[in-house]
Amino acid sequence: MAMIRDEMRKAFHHKRCTPPDYKRLYSAIQRMHRRFGNRKDPGALAIFGESGCGKTTLSEDYFYKYCPYNNVSEAGKQKIHTVVWIEVPEYCTIRRFVTQICKRYGIPAPATDNADQLKDAVLAAMKSAGTQLLIIDEAQQFLSSNSVSGAKQVGHFVRHLMDASRVPFVFIGTPGYQAFIDADEPIRRRIKRRETMRGFTAPLEEKSIFHFTVLAMLKHLDDTCSRRLCSKLSSLELSQRLYLMSGGRIGPVVDFFDQYIEDEIEESSTKLTFGIPECLRAMECFDPPFEFHTSKPAFELNRSSLPKLLTKYPSPEAQ
């Protein structure tokens, strides 16, 4: 028997599990990307989904496929950013939005509040870096401006940036972001396609996507760390407790397994199986950002109460 090592932990994280709509929406982003150079007005794609359903994983994965690289030519060395991914900051203003973009390009943001100068700076950076697609994550933060007029100013700025750059945009945000789009008719017209990223449905039976996802993670855990479930805890029961613990989101489930691995390393454990006691120990140090409201924490519930709770919470939106 052997202890889990840090390299095993890293290997577990390299094995990805993705949400149900991942492939479909990844293809939608690809199609929007291909509009660059083929459309005078490439427009934008809007993706909506509840917090924690995997939107950021989707956008990060597409961004990292097109990592920035140095292009060396007769003109010298130039940093190419084919795809740029940014997160909209809280209490967004035009200047704060532009600062986020400049950070991604690795250039200083202009020390001005003049919208035209800020727009010109972004356009120059996009052109110089050969940008073909701009992914804007956490787009609901456009609505977090200190005032309604401030939100409108940001919307006006984004709209002009889309038109002047002729680069396709992808907006990714919570369902509330639709209000930002629908309230601005010119932006609404520029959205060529809308998509929804659905969450997981409750794993009432083994033939559910959430259960299949947990099974994949258990296989990754076994392959990388040689740890598996004990005979007293079925994989379906684990899936059901993880569903309640995570609020039906994939992120907290991955973090739960990471916490379990961390505990095993700290305890120098050589035990090859885990059950409810180990899950409870992991939860002592793990505070999930999403969870369904139950009478007791997910791993302290009576097994017989699980089906009723899953019926009460059939999806993340049921909270």
From TrEMBL:
Q: Which GO terms describe its molecular function?
A: kinase activity
Sorted keywords for this record are:
Kinase, Transferase
Stretches assigned to the AAA+ ATPase domain: 41-201
InterPro entries noted in UniProt: AAA+_ATPase, ExeA_AAA_ATPase_DNA-bind, P-loop_NTPase, TniB
> What is the annotated signal peptide range for this record?
none
Q: What is this protein called?
A: Adenylate kinase family enzyme
Q: Which organism is it from?
A: Zhongshania antarctica
